Amino acid sequence: MWYAIPCFVKVLLDACLQRGVFPDEWKIARIVVLYKGNGKDPSKARSYRPISLLNGMSKVLEILMVGRLNTIMSGLWCEKQYGFRKGKSTEDLLTDLVGMVRSSRSTYVAALLVDFKGAFDFLRWPRILDRLKETGMNDHEFSLWQSFFCNRRVFVANRGGDLKCWRDLQRGCPQGSIGGPILWNLALDELLRRLNDLGIPTVAYADDTTCLIQGDSRARVEAGVGSVLGEIYKWSDKYGVDVSEEKTQLILLKVHIRLSQEA
């Protein structure tokens, strides 16, 4: 199709961009469920990952939308997000994290490893739209994102395709979509900035978030953990993302042993 009618495809995409309309037919996704493996209980729904098979044209339009959003956000992202960012990697994150730990002069340095439950699946659309509005994009671009989130539908079909179960989507980013990663980064950017502005060194790779808690006593570290979790829960309540208390961990990374000498 792309080679046979390229001019018509361009006209169609230009019309979507200019009018701020994402066609409803392009929002329909077929869900393929993949078992996560690694010994997870196959009887539990969370042991499976839903992947959205999307319309090819929808992906092309999303590429244009994401490209424009990346241009708008150039130089505005919190530099502590290393996931889904061009020129950034896990190695860069580790280098940054190790450097912060080594440079700390606190007696205790602990890492709070935060795990979010189904992060991409539960983001609240109104909050994402608020963040998109805050980027300063023009009205046509914002209308297109509004249309992108409106009337989204998914279905699961049997192997023959003759039996389908339909659901309307009310939240979350389709896993397998082009826009999902940048929309997650846009949401988490708010939390990363908040914590770092409060003097809590925090880095993230996609939804894997690590906060450094520092103090001159165990009691101060424990108090710091409580304060950090308070900020994280406020953000998670706002965006509809749950924190997995079972998987969130606190690890002691560094302890300074100070020796005093009597004169």
TrEMBL record:
It holds the Pfam family RVT_1. It comes from the Eukaryota. Residues 15-263 form the Reverse transcriptase domain. GO terms for biological process: DNA biosynthetic process. Signal peptide: none annotated. This is Reverse transcriptase domain-containing protein.
